[in-house]
Fold this sequence. Notes:
The chain is an alpha/beta fold and 268 residues long. Helix content is 34%, strand content 26%. The protein has helices at residues 62-69, 92-99, 119-130, 137-147, 164-176, 194-211, 222-228, 246-251, 256-264; strands at 2-15, 34-47, 51-55, 77-82, 85-86, 102-105, 182-186, 214-219, 231-236, 239-245. The strands form two sheets. The chain has a six-stranded mixed β-sheet, sandwiched between helices. β4 (77-82) and β5 form a beta hairpin. α3 (119-130) packs across α4, α4 packs across α5 and α5 packs parallel to α6 (194-211). It is globular and about 50 Å long. 36% of the residues are buried.
Amino acid sequence: MALVEVRELTKIYPLGASLFTPPSSPGQTPASKGEARAVDGVSLGIHTGETLGLVGESGSSKSTLGRLILRLIEPTSGSIFFDGEDLGRASAAVMRRLRRDMQIIFQDPFGSLNPRMRVREIVSEPLMIHKLKGIDVKLRAAELMRAVGLDDSALGRYPHEFSGGQRQRIGIARALALRPRLIVCDEPVSALDVSVGAQIVNLLAQLRREFSLTYLFISHSMPIVRYLATRIAVMHHGKIVELGNTEQITTKPAHPYTRSLLEATPEI
């Protein structure tokens, strides 16, 4: 069953006007240079319990698609359904409820954590925002630390006291705080060295099984996606050019761009 369904999703950004661009008629401001179709008519589903790998080179708008699915940015056209609910038509109250089930792990473990907050505050913040009843916040924070392989003593410290890999674990703990159903993992290991990144990938695989999570795993690395994903969607210039199960995509790719990704990326 599709937990997330995307239909003909498009995001267009207008390109900025220039003083050297002539106006469309006298007395008007300079005309726009045109538009950029960041996401271009994407349709796909993310099934409950799976990891859908979204792979493509930098600049292919993978992260934009992830943020559209979470409604962190608004689409130009198209529809997004989460558990059968049309997010484009959802009221503010419905979106607030649904956001508890949709979280994100950001690419940058250094910039995504508030440096003025202790780890306890960072991982507890989602619980406080959503005012969940019947939850011992201190106990949940300690449980989250253990779930991501950190000691409880980390709760009293600040982000600058941790390595990049440890900071990413804190970001993962924050994403888990509300017990979401979907997590968008936006290049979560690209800023880390290979050995630390491998540990984070293994942690994500373990957490998916432990908490029955569904992932949209965004990456430019085909080997990482091959290891973690149930299915793979290949994105190129804002379009999904190929979609299928991992074995099919990695052993019998149909699209030339997919083949080029496989040929260009070394094994890890």
